[in-house]
Amino acid sequence: MSRKSVSIKLKNRISELERLGQKLQAFGEDIGLSKKCVFQINLAVDELFTNIVKYGFADDSRHYVRVALSHADGKISIRVEDDGIPFDAAAKHTSELKDHIEDCKIGGLGLHLVKRIMDGIEYQRCGGKNVITLTKYTPQT
Fold first, then answer.
1. Closest CA to 12 of 69, 68, 58, 50
2. Cα separation, 60 vs 14, whole angstroms
3. Which residue of 8, 44, 69, 91 shows the fewest CB atoms closer than 10 Å?
4. Has residue 90 got a pLDDT over 90?
5. Which residues touch 122 (CB under 8 Å, ≥6 apart)?
6. Which residue in 137, 126, 134, 42 sits closest to 90, CA to CA?
7. Can you give the pLDDT at residue 101?
């Protein structure tokens, strides 16, 4: 069983998205993911991180968001952890896409996208922290 993992600690600042994207890209390349799969993972994690930074904290203090990725037996697990306001993204009702994007109500589309492109999303509140775990199965070669 081959296992690869990486972790990154980010400040709760949008400016950290570039560093996060670089880490996700390097992880994907290291384990031989397709560009499409790397793009999907980056999109999902970017959406979660952005929501955490914009809405997850009741103050303007510095907080940290930890993103840990692991790959084993054809499955990628992504753990996103923050000490923000409790928020269960897995249970949150998301907007359904209509025939036209203009007909969609504001809010929930990002989480809808995350749920569509990932194979699993779970939420836990542990030790005062939000812990979201995303799962993505990789094609067997």
1. 50
2. 13
3. 91
4. no
5. 90, 132, 133, 135
6. 134
7. 47
